[in-house]
Amino acid sequence: TERLAVDIGLSPLIATDRGDLLGRGFLRLLAAYDTEIQTIAKRAQREGRKLSQVPEYREAMGRLRGFLKNEVNRLLNRLVALHAPAVLVVERLDLRSPELSRRMNRLLSNFGRRYLKEKLARLGELYGI
């Protein structure tokens, strides 16, 4: 394929101009992570502890970051395998949802966008996309 237009969102994570919808359960999984992290944060705040000192919080955040990175990489790899585009046009990088907490939206904006940009740069290096 010469050119492939991609729209980045949360539900689904990736939609293409060819009608592909990749990562349909992404928002549901993020909401589960969000609930878990919010519960830990509330408990830590009630106990008067800083989040940086709560091992459960750090572990949950590590799992979330790993999930984000793996999902973005997996879906972009699948997209390249399906269509082998010469040019990849990314339309929108707005990773926010009213269904998620403010903390989760901030994390998605920062880490999600970073992982997407890193992966797109790697695809450019590897395949010249």
TrEMBL record:
Highest taxon of source: Bacteria
Protein's organism: Thermus scotoductus
The protein's name: Transposase
